[in-house]
Each structure stands twice: as C-alpha cells, then as structure tokens.
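Changelog note: in this version the structure field was regenerated for every chain. One regenerated record is shown below for reference.
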Amino acid sequence: MKRKAPAKINIFLKIVGTRGKYHEIASRFIRYEKLFDEIAFVPSKQEEFTIEGMNIPLQSNLIYKAYTKLKEFTQNGQLDAFFQSHKVVLNKNIPEGAGLGGGSSDAATFLLMTNEILSLKIDQKDLMHVGATVGADVPFFISKLPAANVTGIGEVIEPLEDEIPEIELFTPSVHCDTAAVYTHFRQNFLNTIQKEVAKKMLQKTSKEIVREYTPLQANDLYKSAVQICPVLQKYQEKYFLSGSGSSLFREKQ
C-alpha cells in the first residue's frame, strides 16, 4: 500500500484580489511527476494515528489534518480501526517551503488512498471538498489533472488542453515562509494588481507563458519572495518562481 505524491509547479501566479485574510489568485498549476514524496500504510499496532518520516508536531501535519477532516465527513469508525492497525510512513523528497505543494500533495494522496483502500465510495467532487478544508492546493492534487487553471482562493479548478514545456527545476537551500511572502505582498504590492493581464495568461498555454513573459511578470509574489529570501535576487532575470518560492524553474535549454 504505497503511492507517489507528486509536486506541482505554478507556471504563473497572479494575485487578483483578496477575500478576508485570503488572496484570490489566477494561476496555472502543472503536476510535476519527476519529483514526488511516497506514502505507505504499514501494518503496525498503536492507539493513535501515527505518521513516521516528518519531524513536526502531528497536529501541524496536513496528512493528520486530512485524517481529521475525513473522519468529520464520513462519521465512520472504520477509519479509527484501520489506523490503529496501520501507521502512515512518509518518504519525503519534495522540499518544504519551496512552493511545490509537497504537504498538500501528501494530504491529497492520503485522502485518495484511504478512500480507495477502505472502499469509502466518496466521489471526486466530495473528496475535493474535503481536501479544500485541509489546504487550498489539495483539490488540484485530488483532481489528478496534468494541468489546470486555478482561481478563487485555489478552490476553482478548470482543466485545459495545455502544451507543457520540458522544465528544469531546482530549489535553493533556503526556506521561503509562505505567510511572510503573502503578507509582504499585501502590504507593499496590493495596488499593483493586473486583472486583465491575469485573464490573458489564463488563455495561453504554459509553453507560451514561459516564452512570452519575464519571470517577474509571471509571478506577482516574486518581488516579495526576494525581500523575504534575498538569495533569490540573482535568479529573477532568468528563472521563474513556483508559488511563493523558493523553487525556481525554466524551460529546458
């Protein structure tokens, strides 16, 4: 019982508004299957839900949050029984704080696995709804789409016929705090929002985006990410930023 949890890359990310403490986005997400975490359910006796492979408090782990939200949705004691006889083992390869959605992908893969293995028969729409209560990027991973336009606060996912470029990806050894980057953007760049540019980008293929726009034009968070993580400054002319960073990419030369 092992599954891969792939990374995602934001080909572009535009902020188009705010909704309370959240930011409304227009973005192109693509699945990046060359980089993935692995999740396994391993037979093991324990009284409480257990995750091996992450050195963070259980309550801070999105897999645990997915487990609690799934329990609330199903009202099914079967989950408790199964996870008292199985532990979750996570093999982490996607860097944290890198803008690649690793935690969200782990949570989505956990929901998909649990739904399948326990025959919960939750349809994709409902599972995506559960995922949205865990994290904004989780529904995209549940959709299993190779590419999608993502809008709203991340909950509106529209499939498209895309041309995806071959990508070179690397992650500098620096953690970009997502909340800090978004807060900096809200405080300094909220008045620079370009909704019309975002609309045009949603209609273009990913290949067109990386060829027609500069990295700074493609990601509204880039300037804020550079302020939070100055090491990114030397890359901003040639490398695109995924999410709030720190991962960088470009079309393979």
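Spot check on this record: The chain has a mean pLDDT of 96. Residues 102-117 form the longest helix (16 residues).
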